[in-house]
Batch of 2 targets.
Target 1
Amino acid sequence: MSLTQEQLIEKISEVSKLDKKLVAKELDSFVEQILQVSKGNPLTIEGLGVFRLKKGRLSLDTAPNLALEINYKYAGMMPLEIKKGNESSDNQLEQNSEVSTLQNDEELEESGSKSTKEDLGFEIGKVNQVEKKKEEEIKVPKKEKVETQIQVTDPILVDSALPKTEKKSAPKIDEAPKKVATPPTAVKSNQTPKIIAVVLAILVVVSVIVFLNKSNKEKTLAQKENVDIKAKSEVQLSFEPEKPKVEETKPDSATAKVKQTQPVKTSQPEPQIAQTKSISYGLSGEFNAEIPSYYGIVLYTLSFEARADAERSSWIKKGFRAYVDTWIITRENIKYRVALGQFATVEDAKQAALTLPAPFNEAQNHFIKRLNP
Amino acid sequence: MNDTFRKGLISVLRDQLHAKKTVEIEKLGSFKSIHIKQYQKPEPDGRVVLMPPIDYVLFTPEKK
């Protein structure tokens, strides 16, 4: 897509409202003026830029305003550092820079410009010149520094490097820092015991933390169980008076004698226990260890025996035949079941469970278990 | 140079370059807008710098 001179003249005449012939004359004089530019006399055209000869070739330094208008999309964007530098990788960088310049050329070709590197001597030329200067500035002091280091550390390398040209000596100078950089390894070998000591200390700290966590977990479990038991016992206390009424409706069993003593139970639980000593099975009375096998109503399964004993004694005080059944899962994992009553059959146990104070009378809050002392 | 002509020329040139069109002037050369994509530029000190994209005016003198 290009604009020919005739089209250009038409456009200019439209914009400036000048006659086409006048525009054509002005354009000719404009071209002549520019072609007369010599080395020492650059021609500045306001709003367009400066025409000058560079290496015998006419070039244009675009005026800042026009350059900004053309580059309006990317105006203000600055180079961004995405990787910090390493002094030891000079060789790689040189190779990379060559690759990057090749890539840049490819990009230029992709963008549709047929121009060569020399054609880019206007805008890019500035940047390249500045960059080359920077590179030269940076390279020169580095070489001097490295040479001084070589003189101190390894005179043989200096002798071999000095007679060579600058280009050939450059890679050898790059190798020199590697040899100079050897002392830190010795320092590292001295630091190894310290590192081992630090690692051991970390391991000790971690093991202590793990141990503390375990003990804390056990404590929290115990606290949770305490809270549950307290909540249940509070509920149970509030429903305690219901107990004798339910037992009155109890139809079964081996508890005919218990029925006779029921009115006494409600007001005086201790005498009731004395009366029920002779009863082998039942929900109330003392625990009969002589019974070989029986069914019990299990209310709690606890991890701590003391807690289970406390719970058992509280139920005994309320007039129930409470006891603790030990459930050995493994040597280290032992549970303690707090159970009520001793019954000959499962049916008896179920019937008796219905007489328990709420919420323990609900099936979800207890279970019947065959227990062997 | 006529100032009106100069302003008109620059205005037309700017519009055409914005539209990615090449402006050719006989005996002088051509003006075109060139785009360079962003690229990573390794510096001699090891840094890698991301160079921003740029659009710029390229003047190519006519070959004699």
Target 2
Amino acid sequence: MARLVVFLGTALVLLAALATLNWWVDPFGEFWKPSAVQEAHAARPQCLVSHELIGGEYLPFKLDVFRSRPTRTFVTGSSRVLKMGSWPGEGTFANLGMPVISPEIVLKELRALPARPETLYLGVEAFWLNPHFRGFDVSPGFERRARYVLSRSAFDESARIVRRAPYVLLHRWRKERVGSSCVVGRSRPALAWRLDGSRVWSFELDPHTYRPAIDPFTTDLRKLRTGIYDDWTELSPTRVRTLERVLALARARGWRVVGFTPPDGKRYLRFFAASPVIGPRWRAFGRLMPKLFGRYGYRWLDFRDARSIPCRQSDFVDGGYHTDAACSMRMRRRLDAAARRQLALVALGDSIPAARPRECHCRAGFVALFARALRRPVVVRNLAVPGANSADLLRLLRERGGVHADMALVMVGHNDTPWIRPDGSLRRNLAAILDLIHAPDVRVANFYEDGHGDPRVVAEYARAICEVARSHGAACADVYHAFTPKLLAADHVHPNAEGQRLIARLLYALPSARKK
Amino acid sequence: MLFNSFVFLFVFLPLVVVAYFAIPAHRARLVLLVLASYVFYAYAKWWFALLMAASTLVGYAGGRALERTRSKAVLVATVASLLALLGAFKYAAFVGGNLTSFVGVITAHGFPGLHGFLNGIVLPIGISFYTFEGISYAVDVYRGDLEAERDPLRYAFFISFFPHLIGFQIYFDFSAYSDMALGLAQIFGIELPWNFNRPYRASSPIEFWRRWHVTLSTWLRDYLYIPLGGNRKGERRRDANLLATMGLGGLWHGASLNFVVWGLYQGVLLLSTHHLRRRGLRVPAAVAVAVTFVVVMFGWVFFRLHSAAAIGHAVAAMFLLHGLGQFPGHLALLIVAAIAYTMVVPEEWTWDVRSFGFARVAAVGAVLAVGVASIYTSHPFIYFRF
């Protein structure tokens, strides 16, 4: 028994020591180190974070990037979007791209983000639709981590790092200077991440540091770009469905989305067009994407030919796969412009803007009719809650921290009538609601007499709503005076289809009012 | 679940061993081992365990019926039922695939639906092993060499005992895996037969098959070669029996033509040896070992490579048709060590660990730690390329 204890004890002690060293040094970056990123944030000026510390932990790092800044616009996609960064002074942009990402990982990433209004630039790669392409596993399980900390290969690398930088035994990282920049890392920051999630090569910070070799062009599909086009026989229906789920999620979250595909160098373009394996799929991808994004009301920018951005062949750092920062930012400018053309419309209120078909007997409520009348790409977020009164709506907005949009439609108050006096809570609530709406164009509609309450109270409410709206710089549609009993649905509470059309017309006819 | 996976080493095995020694009752231990074995098989896919349960049921019922009736029809039915499971899961894709290729050559269409269906068939772990166990049991009961097992639990244990499962095909992997199986079985007080006995010391293909994968070659001899007539019906019949046995033995290794070719090649080696011996050929032992080693090595080309093109390329390279190539200098030490290990280490090399001092025990523990650390290799996912 004593021998068994010594035998197993020796093995366990050695394995525990091995695991501890590998976990502490973490030579391949398999463990997320938020304190390293916090140290980079805390530094003045802020530091970059070396890739040595991020390693394969892209997902937690990118989610941290998103959460640690007031993100309003973000890009996600493959390594080819990683040079897209913030404009000077811009603090609301985040780059959530990852190398070897796939639609499944994009979906996972977007699901982990909060549902606040954002603008998403979605870089879609043609090779994602190759069924044989596999994305990087961003969620290593316990067994993979156990294999890692108990592996001799990780130990060999840990020992190499400790020999090169003995301080690692006490401090897992430190601030280092690469060129004129500060990088939180250790010994060999070959590439680093800015705190907006964009990527920087060390040779861009200091020309004397490591510069990756360029993969030579090849027509061998097993070798071309690590084989991501090999054996591509069809546009994977599963991947297309996943992309659709991504877009449906974005629409449900009320995000403004612009899709694009990053460009390829001339030589690659020629090869893709001529290749009997890639060519048909490449062209089918080009046809499918605008339709797919269009189906969800989103725009698609086809950047496959770099000249459309415009970028030159010399803007590719590796001959035709990854673009440099200047070209990437030109891409971003095009995406910003496309996003601006896409209007974000938010609707707030009760069951009237919610327009459930069984109540209005209509196919589209006034919010949808209004959006259609604008005759431009609109992303509609209808946050109306049937049965909500002004207090409920105010609570909703406070929980969400307000709403951001290009345009807001508000119709609330109908459910306040039995309980609240017009010069009391409704006024206060509506004023607070309008304060929480961050949109340059806010349009409010008062409500109509449906024959159920005291007509004088309804008239007072209608007047009060418009007074509060105008005092807050919002335009007000006087539905109260335009509405007739014929426009009521069978339940004598909600507007029928014609009534919904009237409200849409009244709101549309209002002059754009800039909210203060 | 592989014996050298972390989930087996750090979760499954410790739990089973601790539970086994915590339970004093023999029957309860048997229940534990059967349950553990089913968990082991079901770990990859839950229905693998159901399949093994079905095979167990057929074997058990067949054995009981055979004991009562000694009927050849019952034996045939039992063996056919067991083989049907194996055939459906292991060989249907092979037969169907070749059939669709054949029809495809004639009609230029084949059976696309059948092809897709067959490609979807998954090979259950260990199905060959427990099927062959069931067959040998049924045959032994029929012959009267064995009494039928009345206790279904004991029979289930005989079929399912998880250290039986062997899945590797490359010598050092396979041999070491077999050794792990022996050790695992011994933990539970079961002695499994040795499966490898320094096969590359063999001085003839006949001796090679007495040293290589001994459990399989014994099974093939007892339940295939001898029932076919063995060497009792003349030289020609013996040669035919050898070829048939080895061809089927090859097919047992995998449902692919290259395994059949490998088996037939081994059969040719065996019958050639018989004929050369009959003609009185005698060579020095060292030469015989070297020649056996070379012809066996040549056979591995058919075993390892599946396509005719790849086999042709490898054979051409072995005959230097692609040039002399470069000697793998970095492997020289390893090659010398492997030869030394195979040739110099005595046939019986056993240690009595009870005589070890604590330092030596700790050193063996350190070897275990190094072994565990060498199971997996981690690669950095560092995107240092553009």
